Amino acid sequence: MAPEPGTRARQRERTRRVLLREARRLFAEHGYGGVGLARIVADSAVTKGALYHHFEGKPDLFRAVLEEVQAEVADAVARAADAHQDPWERLTTGCRAFLTASTAPDVRRIMLMDGPAVLGWSTWRALDEAASARHLTEALTDLVRAGVLRPQPIAPLAHLLSGAMNEAALWLAEADGPADLEDVWAALSRMLESQR
């Protein structure tokens, strides 16, 4: 007797989730270059055919893991920012939450170190923008409406601020000192304050 269609769909989704979870763990621990498909398949306890049913190959699997990491970071930033009513607090809290989230070892390795190297800068930047641009644009729009920022085109400001935060996060990914996050935040805070 064949399994019901809903059961097969749940099994496929469960297999996909296991592949993503194990690939994420392995990419975080060993880096993209240090992990082969055979290891991912073995640690996921699935066949290579099951992996290829869900992903075209290792780059496609990595991209899915990266998108998941970026979505989690974007959610953390939005939750932190949304906890504040004041638009300036929302912006600064969101920026700080992004930098803090970027220091998590798996985020550092997957999103900041391997992401641009594996997918290329343009693809990585497009994924980053898809994950976070809307929230940043909304925050800046609210600040202009509230009169906290001078009226100005939002799109270039959002790109410049996003670029500054990504560069800060990339620098933090390579830094080792415990005070580095505070130093970066102090510099970014001064830059943000100059816009008020």
TrEMBL record:
<dbReference type="Pfam" id="PF21351">
    <property type="entry name" value="TetR_C_41"/>
</dbReference>
<dbReference type="InterPro" id="IPR036271">
    <property type="entry name" value="Tet_transcr_reg_TetR-rel_C_sf"/>
</dbReference>
<dbReference type="Pfam" id="PF00440">
    <property type="entry name" value="TetR_N"/>
</dbReference>
<protein>
    <submittedName>
        <fullName>AcrR family transcriptional regulator</fullName>
    </submittedName>
</protein>
<dbReference type="GO" id="GO:0003700">
    <property type="term" value="F:DNA-binding transcription factor activity"/>
</dbReference>
<keyword id="KW-0804">Transcription</keyword>
<feature type="DNA-binding region" description="H-T-H motif">
    <location>
        <begin position="36"/>
        <end position="55"/>
    </location>
</feature>
<keyword id="KW-0805">Transcription regulation</keyword>
<dbReference type="InterPro" id="IPR049484">
    <property type="entry name" value="Rv0078-like_C"/>
</dbReference>
<dbReference type="InterPro" id="IPR050109">
    <property type="entry name" value="HTH-type_TetR-like_transc_reg"/>
</dbReference>
<dbReference type="InterPro" id="IPR009057">
    <property type="entry name" value="Homeodomain-like_sf"/>
</dbReference>
<feature type="domain" description="HTH tetR-type">
    <location>
        <begin position="13"/>
        <end position="73"/>
    </location>
</feature>
<dbReference type="GO" id="GO:0000976">
    <property type="term" value="F:transcription cis-regulatory region binding"/>
</dbReference>
<keyword id="KW-0238">DNA-binding</keyword>
<dbReference type="InterPro" id="IPR001647">
    <property type="entry name" value="HTH_TetR"/>
</dbReference>
